[in-house]
Amino acid sequence: MIEFDRVGFRYQAAPVLNNITLAVREGEFMGLVGPNGGGKSTLLKLIMGLITPDTGNIRVFGTSPKKARARLGYVPQFARFPSDFPITVEETVLLGRLRAGRIWQRYNAQDRAIAAKVMTETGISEFAQRPIDQLSGGQLQRVLIARALASEPELLLLDEPTASVDAHQEKSVFDLFRELNKRMSIIVISHDIGFITDYVDRVACLNKELLCHETQAITPDVIEQMYGDHVHVIHHHSHAL
Ligand SMILES: Nc1ncnc2c1ncn2[C@@H]1O[C@H](COP(=O)(O)OP(=O)(O)OP(=O)(O)O)[C@@H](O)[C@H]1O
């Protein structure tokens, strides 16, 4: 579903990603970890075709990332909304139904039905008519997940979706991802390696480079190694790299 072939990228002078080769299979639930500035968000931007590699090649669903973008759902790391922007939860979720060329169309009954379904799924139906600036960080994060789900993506990309939630909420959000993974592939960036290993099939660790690691468990040695200058992928179940 995603193939990186010797991908390199730099914003300015310093390289951010070096020689990344990675294959993600359909149905996978992959965790992406690594030190701050290790290039995790950059990797997601490359998958979405928002930036293009300087070297190497990326295919998403067998085509270019830009062409595949409509099949992806994305939940950004930090969402900022102007506090005087009076948009409700439901309206925010409906934005996920907008596709290129549809901006000026009204939402139809199917759009509203899908928005209702994903709001139920993410546990935000009770806030549907509330302005989004009156939500807690955790509630807003669920709204953004619902907005991404409203486009009915085949692959969901999440950049630290539980950064602003407590441990109980983190578990319930990842339980939701586990359910969603039955119908879509998921790549999630997290800082909490110990936690995500209970959920994901594989953990990829990125620190400018990516290294694959064939092991069943993440040991302190592995973690130490991962946060060195390289990147490791740890297999938990049957998915092969
Ligand atoms: N638009 C940009 N222009 C220039 N440099 C950038 C830009 N975006 C990111 N960088 C730099 O690229 C490097 C990788 O950033 P990236 O956001 O991909 O890391 P990350 O692993 O997601 O980090 P974090 O865990 O802190 O979110 C960092 O050194 C960052 O400063």
From TrEMBL:
UniProt KW Translocase keyword: no
Name this protein carries in UniProt: ABC transporter
GO molecular function: ATP binding; ATP hydrolysis activity
Lineage: Bacteria, Pseudomonadati, Pseudomonadota, Gammaproteobacteria, Oceanospirillales
Domain ABC transporter: 2-233
A Pfam family of this chain: ABC_tran
Gene3D superfamilies in the record: P-loop containing nucleotide triphosphate hydrolases
Coiled-coil residue spans: none
Family the UniProt entry places it in: Belongs to the ABC transporter superfamily.
Matches recorded under PANTHER family: METAL TRANSPORT SYSTEM ATP-BINDING PROTEIN TM_0124-RELATED (PTHR42734:SF17)
Keyword Nucleotide-binding: yes
Entry-linked SMART domains: AAA
Keywords: ATP-binding, Nucleotide-binding, Transport
